[in-house]
UniProtKB/TrEMBL annotation:
Record organism: Nonomuraea pusilla
Keywords: Monooxygenase, Oxidoreductase
The keyword Oxidoreductase is assigned to this record: yes
InterPro entries listed in its UniProt record: ABM_dom, Dimeric_a/b-barrel
Single GO term (MF): monooxygenase activity
Name recorded for this polypeptide: Heme-degrading monooxygenase HmoA
Residue span, ABM domain: 6-94
Superkingdom, natural source: Bacteria
Classification lineage: Bacteria, Bacillati, Actinomycetota, Actinomycetes, Streptosporangiales
Pfam families assigned to the protein according to its UniProt record, in alphabetical order: ABM
């Protein structure tokens, strides 16, 4: 298995009327993910087309370290806190094979991911 940057993308359908509460709780419990030594950051995005749909992107130094986190007690507790807001969802995983920075450069939230990507190359 290639030791490359690993990205996890979740698609979550949130129960109607619970979107703001979901966003608040996601921000409150996010450090249970971002403080893991292998996590490079995560992003929460509200879908522009589908009401109540959110996407969470999370970058990891490699897949084995993510899988270690995925089965940890820390992750199970995190999921329990967000589960009441979900009515459905899915997960996609991917290995980043290339990164082309845009003309505007890296936003502060992306700087650590970019640096990790460069270091891993």
């Amino acid at each position: 298995m290639s030791e490359t940057l690993f990205r996890v993308m979740l698609r979550l359908q949130i129960k109607p009327g619970m979107e703001q509460e979901f966003e608040r709780v996601w921000l409150e419990v996010g450090d249970s993910v971002t403080t893991h030594p292998a996590n490079l950051g995560q992003w929460l995005a509200r879908d522009g087309d589908e009401k109540g749909v959110y996407h969470i992107m999370s970058d990891w130094v490699d897949e084995p370290r993510f899988r270690e986190f995925e089965t940890s007690e820390r992750h199970l507790e995190h999921r329990k806190k967000l589960h009441p807001y979900r009515s459905g969802g899915s997960m996609s995983t991917m290995h980043i094979v290339a990164h082309l920075p845009g003309t505007a450069g890296c936003a502060p939230a992306e700087a650590a991911t970019h640096e990790a990507w460069e270091a891993a190359r």
